[in-house]
Write a structure and sequence with these properties.
This protein has two domains: 7-120, Probable inorganic polyphosphate/atp-NAD kinase, domain 1 (Rossmann fold); 133-286, Tumour Suppressor Smad4, CATH 2.60.200.40. The mean pLDDT is 93. The chain has helices at 25-32, 50-60, 72-82, 99-103, 110-119, 143-151, 159-170, 229-241, and strands at residues 7-13, 38-44, 65-70, 88-93, 122-130, 133-135, 138-142, 176-182, 185-191, 193-197, 201-203, 206-207, 219-224, 250-255, 257-261, 265-270, 273-278, 281-293. Helix 1 packs parallel to helix 5 (110-119) and helix 6 packs across helix 7 (159-170). Helix 1 (25-32) links the parallel strand 1 (7-13) and strand 2. By secondary structure, the protein is an alpha+beta fold. The chain has eight helices and 18 strands.
Length: 294
């Protein structure tokens, strides 16, 4: 364990993420963080993208770690600034899905997650670069990207809202033809979803790439073919059971580089945050580029 004496932590709280209220987080930090080892500051985000500028400033101000208090989107904003630096990422998971925290076995109970910070165990993990952005858990293209765009408009967060939107829009969404280049090999695929996984799951323990490892310097390209509604229900069940495997409905390829093209605008998301792009999406693995407390 690295010495924690004199470590300076910055907690960045996103008051809008997830379904949990965060008014008691400052008191929980005060009660459970080892004050003899750490000094800390708390800052709240005020608008989308604010966490990025907060994290960038924290690097310049000499903080040892920036702790994301929120969901995968908040983590993405902060971690994107910490890639390639000596400043570590900490996580207090309070989002809708908490995919990265679940993969890293960070407790979902906030008191226990704060106590885990006291151990200050650091490990380096892989990250993925997408055009000019990063993701740390998963990039979803196609239907998944479309739902992420719809999800951001909802007042209610959580897995049930996500599943409700998915069930409703399934009957209206048309699968797309993609030109997919994986480690230099190009194919044309009609896909409902293309998920590029660094960690093993979307969130809420739905594992699209059960064998994914954050330290293997590999991405997992998961192509989900068009399917019937009953087959979709079976895939959902398999996802929650961690039993999705390479097969007829889902094709999983381990790789280091992926390029994806389609006609028109592509919907996609990075760790749940929605994007639109006209043109190609280029994704590559960046091994062990982020330090995480876990």
């Amino acid at each position: 364990m690295e010495s924690t004496a004199g470590k300076k932590l910055l907690f960045v709280i996103n008051p809008r993420s997830g379904v949990l209220k965060k008014h008691d987080v400052p008191q929980l930090i005060k009660t459970n963080l080892n004050s003899s080892q750490f000094s800390y500051t708390i800052q709240y985000t005020e608008f989308a993208g604010h966490a990025k500028s907060i994290a960038a400033t924290a690097i310049l101000e000499g903080y040892s770690a920036v702790i994301a208090v929120g969901g995968d989107g908040s983590i993405n904003e902060i971690a994107s600034q910490l890639v390639g630096t000596e400043v570590a990422l900490g996580i207090l998971p309070m989002g809708s899905g908490n995919g990265l925290a679940r993969h890293l076995n960070i407790p979902l109970a906030i008191t226990k997650a704060i106590q885990l910070l006291n151990n200050y165990q650091i490990q380096a993990i892989d990250v993925a670069r997408v055009n000019e952005n990063y993701f740390f858990g998963l990039c979803g293209i196609g239907f998944d990207g479309f739902i992420a765009n719809q999800f951001q408009l909802e007042k209610k967060r959580g897995i049930f809202t996500y599943l409700k939107l998915s069930a409703y829009h399934y009957f209206h969404y048309k699968s797309t033809d993609y030109q997919l280049t994986v480690d230099g090999k190009t194919t044309t695929e009609k896909a409902f979803i293309i998920a590029i996984a660094n960690s093993n799951q979307f969130g809420s323990d739905f594992k699209i790439a059960p064998m994914a490892d954050l330290k293997d310097a590999l991405l997992h390209c998961c192509v989900v073919k068009p399917f019937s509604f009953p087959t979709g229900m079976l895939l959902v069940l398999k996802g929650f059971l961690g039993k999705i495997r390479d097969g007829k409905s889902v094709q999983i390829t381990n790789c280091k580089n992926v390029s994806i093209k389609s006609k028109g605008t592509q919907y996609y998301h990075l760790d749940g945050e929605p994007y639109l792009v006209d043109g190609a999406i280029h994704i590559q693995i960046v091994p062990l580029a982020l330090k995480v407390i876990c």
